[in-house]
């Protein structure tokens, strides 16, 4: 894999690179003539550079032939060059930032004459740059490096399991749970967005999301009194479900699939643990395995029913993405 690392001024990017190259055994690559040395937020010239390249194409060709190695590059800031790599299945972009206080402490060691105001100016110059904002938007991981302790930094980076193959190509669980999350985006239920997908032999049989019945007024338009006025109906999570007009995501998926299309070896993925009512229906149609992401108020009751029925039941925990605060 190739990890592209970009950071703001004084964010401790050099410490991260040292950990990658010295402890995590990544090979550091360098692309010449992208930006001047003074403009690079992560200075790597005092580190051992494994291989240098004169242009993005030669770098890309090298990585394509050697993508199974753990490779690192820190100067892909030119957006046109970055786009070339984002298209490839072996590339992952990570950005690094830090608090102004710690940026000032790091920079003061290198430039004693710099004031806090100067550090803020340099930090803002990059963070408010439209090109860098675009880079941040495309990053799979955004590290907030709020520690000066390199051991703490190393421990946290190691826990992220950055070389996990699933970060480059999602496992089937991740793949189908994304389908469930996408289905949930169609939900108009005022209480909770839930999405579900039924799979057989790694092929989608049916999808569903929660909402009022076909032809009825949508929940977000006032179609379900329980969801829209929980205080009046006294309906907290998992309570008074019989007064709710919204079909659950699992119910919609089961209705869409039909009994004959489910059969054996079908897996139901749901972004929320099924309630007890849906659990009974899932058991009855012959689903073999249930995988969920988020917990619900009655997980233990649903689990008991699934276990008694001999249905595999487990929670899916994906690799960590998004913003990670290290402190």
TrEMBL record:
Enzyme type, top EC level:
hydrolase
| InterPro entries given in the database record | APOBEC/CMP_deaminase_Zn-bd, CMP_dCMP_dom, Cytidine_deaminase-like, dCMP_deaminase-rel, Deoxycytidylate_deaminase_dom
Question: Which Pfam families did the record assign?
Answer: dCMP_cyt_deam_1 (PF00383)
> GO biological process: what's one of them?
nucleotide biosynthetic process
Q: Which UniProt keywords apply?
A: Hydrolase, Metal-binding, Nucleotide biosynthesis, Zinc
* Residue ranges of every copy of the CMP/dCMP-type deaminase domain listed in the record: 171-313
What is a single molecular function from GO for this protein?
dCMP deaminase activity
The prosthetic group or cofactor this protein requires is: Zn(2+)
The record's section on PROSITE patterns has: CYT_DCMP_DEAMINASES_1, CYT_DCMP_DEAMINASES_2
A single GO cellular-component term from the record reads: cytoplasm
Enzyme Commission identifier(s): 3.5.4.12
Q: What's the family?
A: Belongs to the cytidine and deoxycytidylate deaminase family.
Protein's name in the database = Deoxycytidylate deaminase
Organism of derivation:
Pichia kudriavzevii
């Amino acid at each position: 894999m190739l990890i592209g690392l970009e950071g703001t001024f004084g964010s401790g990017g050099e410490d991260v690179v040292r950990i990658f190259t010295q402890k995590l055994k990544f090979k550091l690559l360098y692309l010449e003539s992208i930006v001047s040395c003074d403009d690079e937020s992560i200075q790597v010239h005092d580190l051992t550079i494994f291989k240098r390249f004169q242009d993005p194409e030669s770098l890309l060709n090298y990585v394509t032939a050697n993508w199974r190695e753990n490779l690192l590059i820190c100067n892909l800031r030119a957006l046109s060059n970055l786009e070339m790599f984002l298209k490839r299945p072996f590339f992952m972009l990570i950005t690094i930032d830090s608090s102004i206080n710690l940026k000032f402490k790091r920079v003061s060691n290198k430039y004693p004459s710099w004031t806090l105001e100067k550090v803020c100016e340099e930090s803002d110059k990059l963070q408010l740059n439209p090109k860098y904002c675009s880079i941040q938007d495309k990053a799979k991981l955004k590290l907030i490096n709020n520690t000066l302790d390199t051991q703490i930094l190393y421990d946290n980076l190691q826990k992220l399991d950055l070389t996990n193959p699933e970060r480059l190509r999602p496992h089937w669980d991740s793949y189908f749970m994304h389908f469930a999350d996408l289905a949930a985006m169609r939900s108009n239920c005022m209480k909770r967005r839930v999405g579900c997908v039924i799979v057989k032999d790694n092929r989608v049989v049916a999808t569903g999301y929660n909402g009022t019945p076909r032809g009825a007024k949508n929940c977000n338009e006032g179609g379900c009194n329980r969801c829209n006025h929980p205080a009046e109906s006294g309906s907290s999570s998992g309570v008074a479900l019989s007064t709710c007009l919204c079909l659950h995501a699992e119910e919609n998926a089961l209705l869409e699939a039909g009994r004959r299309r489910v059969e054996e070896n079908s897996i139901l993925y749901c972004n929320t643990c099924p309630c007890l009512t849906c659990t009974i229906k899932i058991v009855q149609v012959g689903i073999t395995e249930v995988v969920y992401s988020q917990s619900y108020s009655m997980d233990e009751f649903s689990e008991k029913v699934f276990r008694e029925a001999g249905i595999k039941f487990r929670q899916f925990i994906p690799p960590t993405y998004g913003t990670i605060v290290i402190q």
